[in-house]
Structure formats: C-alpha cells, structure tokens
Specification:
The protein has six helices and seven strands; from the N terminus they run ααβββαβαβαββα. It is α/β, with parallel strands linked by helices.
C-alpha cells in the first residue's frame, strides 16, 4: 500500500513538471508581507540607541528659525542645555520662560541653550519664539530627525551637555525651574 502511494506521488510530481510546485502568493499576502517589512524597518530605525548619560552627545546640523545653520559641536567649551519643545505642548510653554530666565542669569558664565522645535513648520516655531522673545537659538526639526537621534518620544525633554560634549543629565517631562537649571549648570561646569 505504501509503495502505491509513493508511486502515485511521484507520478503527480512529474505531471506538474518537477519535484514540487512553486509556492503561490496572493496579491493580498504580498502586500501584507511588504507592509510588515516596511513597518519592521521603521521600528528598527526608531530603535537605534540614543546617546546615554556619560556618553558623547550626537552632533547634528540644523537651521534656526532665522535661517542660520547651527551645529551642536559649535557649542563645545560651554555647558549646553538642549531642550525639545512644541507650540502645542503646555508643559513646554510653562518651562520655556524658566529656561530663558536661567539662560539670562548664567550665559556670561558659559551656559548656552538650543531650543529644538519638535515637528512643526518653521513659521509656527518662529512666530512662537518671537512672541516669547527667546534670546537663544530656536532650531526647526520638522522631520523630528534630531529628536529621533536623541530618543525623544514625548515632550518636554532636555539634555545638559558639558563643555566636552558629554551628556551629563536628561530631564524627561516635569517642569524645570530657573533654580533647578542653575543648580544643574553649576554642578556640570565644575572641573
């Protein structure tokens, strides 16, 4: 009986033109597979490891709301507060005046600030920055490439970077105060 079944299978395979028929994929199956590959690629890109506390800050180049090109590495030699914000972020709106006050108080001692707008049009960021009277550069991160590089997925998020370009502190959410920023600045700038 077993021999007859094996013989029948061989005959069936020979009629089909080989050892086995090629797999058949439906258009829907192909579309699903392509979507999964694309989604997996996006997640893999998003999963790249952001800079860690104690590690080097990732350098980048961006355009300010005034059209000037700025690199993070331009701020070597200063303690830098890199802060991510958006016009729709209520905690950001409360925190930015505190950042401004701390900047005004400590800029002569070496504090610098870069405010990175998260995913909005240049005009929106520029209007808001002018209204608030920011005395520090406001960068436009329309495609959130800088934010992704730093692992920013919610706002506000800030990084304190020392004079050698090393990340010393990360503040996620919450409200930074002028006093708290000043304290962090003083601790980081100590040799």
């Amino acid at each position: 009986m077993q021999n007859m079944q094996n013989k029948q299978m061989k005959n069936d395979q020979q009629k089909k033109g080989g050892a086995s028929a090629p797999p058949h994929f439906s258009p829907r199956g192909i579309a699903l597979f392509a979507t999964l590959l694309l989604f997996g690629g996006i997640l893999t890109g998003m999963g790249s490891k952001p800079p860690q506390i104690g590690g080097p800050a990732s350098d980048f180049q961006a355009i300010t709301t005034e059209g000037q090109s700025v690199r993070l590495s331009d701020y070597r030699g200063k303690v830098l507060l890199l802060t991510f914000w958006a016009t729709w972020c209520e905690p950001c709106k409360k925190e930015l005046p505190e950042i401004e006050a701390a900047y005004e108080k400590h800029k002569r001692e070496g504090l610098a600030v870069l405010a990175v707008n998260f995913g909005e049009k240049r005009e929106e960021a520029e209007t808001f920055a002018k209204k608030m009277g920011f005395p520090f550069p406001t960068l436009v991160d329309r495609k959130v490439a800088i934010a992704e590089r730093y692992g920013v997925i919610s706002l506000p998020v800030s990084f304190f970077i020392d004079a050698d370009g090393i990340i010393r502190e990360r503040v996620i959410g919450g409200l930074m105060t002028e006093a708290g920023i000043g304290k962090s600045f003083e601790q980081i700038r100590k040799p």
